[in-house]
Amino acid sequence: MLLLLGIMSQSCSLISKGKGEIIEGQVIYKITYPEEANSHNMSFLFPKEMHLFFKDDKQKATFKGSMNLYSLDFIHLNKSDSFFTLLQVLDRKLYVPASNSGDIFLFQNYSNEKVIFSEGKTRNIAGFKCEMAEIKPANSKIPDITIWYTEEIGVNNPNRNTPFEKIPGLMLDFEVNYQNIAFHFKADKVISIEVPEDVFMVPESYSKSSISEIEEMIQGVIN
After folding, report:
1. At 2, is the secondary structure helix, strand, or coil?
2. In terms of DSSP bridges, do strands 13-14 and 181-192 run parallel, antiparallel, or are they unpaired?
3. What are the tens digits of pLDDT across the range 147-190?
4. Residue 42 pLDDT more than 80?
5. CA distance 54 to 196
6. Helix, strand, coil share (%) of the chain residues, nearest 5
7. What residues are paired with 87 via a beta bridge?
8. 47: closest CA among 63, 26, 28, 29?
9. 132 and 107 in contact (C-beta within 8 Å)?
10. Tell me, what's the pLDDT at 4?
11. Whose CA is closest to 86, among 196, 180, 185, 205?
């Protein structure tokens, strides 16, 4: 993965505020955790980055663990809400067909959220003007979420298959609580590149599975 990023960095330019809308490319998010999560005896396995590839109506979000022990992908191929879930743990490779998809399981703690938009509050993240919104979860045990999003990046249906579909732009700074662990995502780079079609394909080496099996394996990593 580091080699791939190195190659891309030689041939791609970062797009900054004022240079127009990106309609194809990659967003690299840094993922951080609260101190108590960092003290977890398996915290070295927590993903440190998420890479979002986008092109036309296609998107792919990729998480990779330390030492390439595992990877988790979500692939959207069209305007509908269907998507593929892929998980590789060592030599085991599994995928869940799009026809079996619902909301991305990372957002299972959220439902019936109230969205409050804050007029006039803006912030620059990775070179893009972002506006603020607050999410008030229906579950009172989950803290409110502050989201910073931008409409300067041309990602179609950017928040599909999440409870945050009311957010009109791509989220560049947000937080998700999964398995009682707070994952804080913040965009570090937005890169304008031509994304190959095979990025959005399920490799033939992956075997059909179920969301329950995928979740069980993920929980085995972070618990």
Report:
1. helix
2. antiparallel
3. 999 999 988 888 877 778 889 999 999 998 887 788 999 999 99
4. no
5. 10
6. 20, 45, 40
7. 72, 94
8. 63
9. no
10. 30
11. 205
